[in-house]
Amino acid sequence: MSLQADLKRITDTRFCLSCGACSYICSPDKVAMVDIDHVGLRPQFSDGIAPALIREACAVCPTITSDYGQLKDRDDYVASVDKKTETNWGAITGIWEGYANDEELRFKGSSGGALTAIAQYCLEQLDYHAALHTGEDPDDPIRNKTRLSHTRDELLAAVGSRYSPASVCDGLGGVEAAPKPCVVIGKPVEIAATRNAMALRPALAEKVGVTLSFFCAETPPTKATRRLMAEHGVPEEGLETLRYRGYGWPGYFTTRNAGEAPRQHWIYQRAWAYLQGFRPWSAHLWPDGAGELADISCGDPWYEEPDGENPGFSLIVARTKLGKEIIEGAIAKGYLTATPAETWKLDKSQEGLLRKKGSVWGRRLAHRVMGMPNTRFKGLDLFTPWMALSPKEKLASTVGTLRRILKRGLWKRA
Ligand SMILES: Cc1cc2nc3c(=O)[nH]c(=O)nc-3n(C[C@H](O)[C@H](O)[C@H](O)COP(=O)(O)OP(=O)(O)OC[C@H]3O[C@@H](n4cnc5c(N)ncnc54)[C@H](O)[C@@H]3O)c2cc1C
Ligand code: SF4
User: Fold this and answer.
1) Looking at ligand 1, which residue's alpha carbon is closest to its atom 21?
2) Cystine design at 398: which of 146, 246, 306, 362 (Cβ 3.0–4.6 Å)?
3) CA–CA separation, 408 vs 23, rounded Å?
4) Could you list the residue range(s) of the whole structural domain that residue 401 is in?
5) Mean pLDDT for the chain?
6) 135 CA → ligand 1 middle, Å
7) What is the pLDDT of residue 309?
8) Residue 141 domain flag
9) How far is the CA of 211 from the centre of ligand 1 (A)?
10) Residue 3 — pLDDT band, cuts 50, 70, 90?
11) 92 and 106 co-located in one domain
């Protein structure tokens, strides 16, 4: 591709998923992540940026290219599941269900606080330097802030799920500069970007100790949170804190404004049903909802209906030898309580994400028909999940997508 074509593609808001890797590669003063209210964080490339940097930004952008064969191709990869499960959910070396032994982490965590407990184990027992992740921006609670957490209390301050734009990879510079290996926690797309960046920058690869992700249907834009607040009459002015869930599983959308007590609004399922309708087009084109490229990925155990009494637990999936060792270490050292889980629990908990993965094959076909670009995926079988869809779903993903592209003028670049 020509340089102009590269720049056009990477700044195309229809494809970007806010990961922030291009900002890390080019440096944040050359590429700022700007919050566009109705789509999410998008990179703003400054004028006169060196052509070599633009090429590197394209090389790390996971929505341009991602290699999904890389974990399965490793010499030390030993699958603990059958081929069908691997096709559906990516590399797997072990599945557990469990929760953080630290009761506060478990209670405040998104499902069972497992991700945070694993990160804490890495910091305290494996001598990792810090964890790169995101959490509520204390100065602007409807937004998120990338941070490096060094202690249990710093990790705890960012526990839980943020259903609003985040760009964890814009903090990879802090990992690269760290004196020791770090934990990187991010959405599936952020871990795909981290893998691309590690391949390009050996100095970063040396400092990424372990990657943690979670099951994720991608983020709605800031506009969605504003609208949800408006539904409940919550003014933006004076907002001091906002959480989407947690404090019990799955928890409630909750806000607190200056001088007021916390206000509990909709339960998570209802709030998410509202928020997800705002997700941008790029979210519907991204097939990895399972953190397939992370060493460890956690999800909600939706195979069980939360009854409000359950303090919460997480499905914990190891994808590499390292991921498995870390989970076993965290259990042995008392950070996690977890027991091996059967594959059906994963399938039953995440049916929606698997259907989405199949639908992406049909959506990509519609893109091709319309002459629109697609992400280049290596080692990713989307056709098999598409074949498992019902005839109605197959039609919706192909013909329905074509209709949406035409109706919304998506073939035109905004
Ligand atoms: C946008 C989004 C979509 C999700 N979709 C699904 C889904 O489809 N199915 C499902 O089972 N679960 C979904 N989840 C929930 C997720 O799977 C749970 O967070 C997971 O079970 C881990 O829970 P935990 O208690 O172990 O994590 P915790 O210990 O609470 O740790 C959560 C970690 O995630 C990080 N984090 C939170 N929000 C973001 C964000 N927006 N971007 C990057 N990092 C973030 C935090 O920094 C923290 O380190 C989603 C979460 C998010 C943020
Ligand atoms: S997906 Fe990530 S790397 Fe690609 S343009 Fe968006 S922020 Fe940059």
Assistant:
1) 299
2) 362
3) 29
4) 354-414
5) 96
6) 11
7) 74
8) yes
9) 14
10) confident
11) yes
Q: Ligand 1 within 6 A of 160 CB? A: yes
The answer to whether residues 217 and 289 touch, using CB atoms and an 8 Å cutoff, is yes
One domain for residues 337 and 358 = no
Asked whether residue 342 falls in the same domain as residue 378, the answer is no
Give the N- to C-terminal CA distance of the chain in Å, as an integer.
Answer: 20
Distance of CA 351 to the CA centre of its chain: 17
- Looking from the CA of residue 189, the nearest atom of ligand 2 is 1
Q: How far apart, in Å, are the Cα atoms of 57 and each of 53, 313, 369?
A: 6, 38, 27
28 within domain boundaries: no
- The structural domain count of the chain equals 2
Question: Each residue of 300-312: pLDDT tens digit?
Answer: 999 998 877 788 9
Look at residues 312, 333, 349 and tell me which one is the last residue of a structural domain: 349
Does residue 8 have a pLDDT over 90?
A: no
User: pLDDT, tens digit, for every residue of 273-320?
Assistant: 999 999 999 999 999 999 999 999 999 999 998 877 788 999 999 999
Neighbouring C-beta atoms of residue 49, cutoff 10 Å:
15
Q: Is residue 263 part of a domain?
A: no
Q: Distance, CA 348 to ligand 2 centroid (Å)?
A: 31
301 lines ligand 1 (CB under 6 A): no
Ligand 1 atom with the shortest distance to the CA of 302: 11
**pTM (two decimals):** 0.98
**Considering 301, 320, 349, which residue would you say is the last residue of a domain?**
349
Distance 299 CA to ligand 2 centre (A): 24
**342/369 same-domain check:** no
Probe residue for ligand 2, chosen from 9, 11, 17, 219 as the CB with the greatest number of ligand atoms within 8 Å: 17
Q: Are residues 296 and 363 in the same domain?
A: no
HSE-up (13 A, CA, CB side) for residue 245: 25
| Nearest-ligand number for the alpha carbon of 17 | 2
Residue 202 lies in a domain: yes
Residue 309 exposed, middle or buried by CB count within 10 Å (0-12, 13-18, 19+): exposed
Does the pLDDT value for residue 11 go beyond 90?
no
Least distant ligand from the CA of 215: 1
Same-domain pairing of 202 and 297 = yes
Please tell me whether residues 311 and 361 are part of one structural domain: no
Ligand 1: distance of its center to the CA of 213 in Å? 8
CATH code of the domain containing 159: 3.40.640
Q: Same domain for 132 and 208?
A: yes
- pLDDT more than 90, % of the chain: 94
Ligand nearest to the CA of 56: 2
234 residue type, one letter:
V
Rg of the chain over all Cα atoms, to the nearest angstrom:
20
